[in-house]
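Cont'd.
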Amino acid sequence: DQQVKQNSPSLSVQEGRISILNCDYTNSMFDYFLWYKKYPAEGPTFLISISSIKDKNEDGRFTVFLNKSAKHLSLHIVPSQPGDSAVYFCAASEVNRDDKIIFGKGTRLHILP
Amino acid sequence: GAGVSQSPRYKVAKRGQDVALRCDPISGHVSLFWYQQALGQGPEFLTYFQNEAQLDKSGLPSDRFFAERPEGSVSTLKIQRTQQEDSAVYLCASSQMDVPLRAGNTIYFGEGSWLTVV
């Protein structure tokens, strides 16, 4: 039973436009959410995170939005650049369980020239 | 070292063979994690060490999987009597603090060890 769901396996976006990656979760005990980016043959790298006490966190071109009532979060990338082409993993951890991060299956983002 | 280093990068094992995967975390990092990533899936938690203590091994799929970190730095993940379903990328990650996330800390992943069981 997947606790973190990324229902879009892939997404293609024109360079310069906005990329929106979506993530849903089922576990109401999750209180910290993260996005990781992964290039082929490399390990995931941390991108941005958000605590459940917030509904938005911004870092440069990347913004994460959290809707707790809908158990939904999204990652916005504006403007999209060719180097953003990668697999993006949504992840979450429970209250008092920092040691265990639960990952979604990932969404492959293609930035088109 | 500059990052988390894992070896071997690629391993082909015959079914029934034992394998050992090594992880060198970033120097001084207290926390160390092992994750398993099957093809088309996200990473799945296996086990967590704080220094030499294995605080959580709830994700290890069977008693064929064993992890250790005897001196609180290098860690080894051992898989005994490998099966085809063990084929995956095994990711090691480390974190500077003993509270990995809440203090704005980050977990750094290695490039992974790709295991194929034939």
